[in-house]
Hints:
This protein is of the alpha+beta class. The protein folds into three domains: 8-86, no CATH class; 121-230, Butyryl-CoA Dehydrogenase, subunit A, domain 2; 246-375, Butyryl-CoA Dehydrogenase, subunit A, domain 3 (Up-down Bundle). Helix content is 47%, strand content 14%. The chain is built from eleven helices and eight strands. The strands form two sheets. The protein has a four-stranded mixed β-sheet with strand order 1-4-5-8, covered by helices on one side. It has a four-stranded antiparallel β-sheet with strand order 2-3-7-6, with no helix packed on it. Helix 4 runs antiparallel to helix 6. The protein is globular. It binds flavin-adenine dinucleotide. Flavin-adenine dinucleotide binds at residues 123-126, 131-132, 156-158, 208, 356, 359-360, 363, 365-366, 369.
Amino acid sequence: MNWIEMTDEAFRDLLRAFFAANVPSHLRNHPHRIPRWAESKDWYLTLASKGWLAPNWPREHGGMGLDAGKLLIYFSEIERAGIPRLYDMGLYMLGPVLIRHGTEEQKQTYLPKILSGKHLWAQGYSEPEAGSDLANLRTTATLKDGEFIVNGQKLWSTFLDDATHMYILARTKTGTRKQEGISFIIVDLASPGITRRLIKTLAGQDELGEVFFDNVRVPYENLVGPLHNGWGLAKDLLEFERLNNGSPKLPLSALNLLTAYGVSNGVLQDPWISSRFTQLRMDLEDQITAYRYFGERLKSGKGVGPEVSILKVWSTETFQRIADLFLELTGEEGIEAYWSDDDPTGALRMFFNSRPATIYAGCNEVQRDILAKRVLQLPG
Ligand SMILES: Cc1cc2nc3c(=O)[nH]c(=O)nc-3n(C[C@H](O)[C@H](O)[C@H](O)COP(=O)(O)OP(=O)(O)OC[C@H]3O[C@@H](n4cnc5c(N)ncnc54)[C@H](O)[C@@H]3O)c2cc1C
């Protein structure tokens, strides 16, 4: 099927019809929990078999080869259908880096296994004392007899529960500027010397974790891009993360759940609640408009610029405000439901999940710093 030639409207209709007919009901409007691999695997493979799993990869690598405009349509239809996040570190983070910077052999080895779900990826950037200030990282990869010996610790790695591989940033040279001497390396998590420990989040999920490397031997061929020069690759990948995390999907699905609750309980009739709810809806509509504006900029070939930082702040803080109102409305029922098996409202889980959103993918304070310095040109 040639979706590249289709009009935007025809492409949107095609996706909408397919999602409406095929997304499994247990994944729709998931109450703010990333489904485990066992739950989402079938849907992942359905998308893969249709060739619709990797919208931003070129077609020769099994992707959809969408331009920025159609990419935006793809994501907005995913959001509209209430489809939750899949195990997507390979698809959206590593895949594009390999396509741009990997060797032919790396592309042949890893890309098909991302699409088949054989390799599940985690991101090993953050460490204790190296989160917002990532260049502070201390994990080392020392070259010895043609391989790297990795020592150190990674923290807060999403999808670690089922991950088979991790791409890491490690220091391969010392005595230089902090951002220099860092390399981007692929690690098989089954290698001897690796210990992983899962961390239970406030929301009771445990797909997040930390990894300890104790003299782990990694083949030199697992280096992606130039030795000592992984910082540029790492930042490439974070650019996507920034736009992706500025998408309105979290507040949008949160508002859908809040609306469904409010309508079924009649609480939206209350003028005070209705006014707060309306304010949130209007803020979300504004954010969607801003997101489309950045999408149009991408589509026309202009970069998104440092202004894009506003999206992440807006999306995550609107998400938190919606979660606050939802929990307030559900009251004790919402809190008690959290400990029941089916958790019919999902309000407390949503509240917990909304808290870290302002921290990950570049904390909001750092985004505000970018806006202040690079957009408003305020003094440091
Ligand atoms: C749910 C979740 C999933 C994550 N997944 C991954 C993953 O898959 N892989 C990975 O590598 N990492 C992951 N992270 C880590 C994430 O990238 C870091 O938490 C983030 O970069 C912040 O770093 P930190 O936790 O060290 O906090 P710090 O950098 O110590 O920041 C803590 C707080 O200090 C303040 N602060 C920090 N710097 C500034 C500044 N310059 N100006 C003003 N205030 C500031 C802010 O309030 C900030 O929230 C995840 C984190 C969470 C919460």
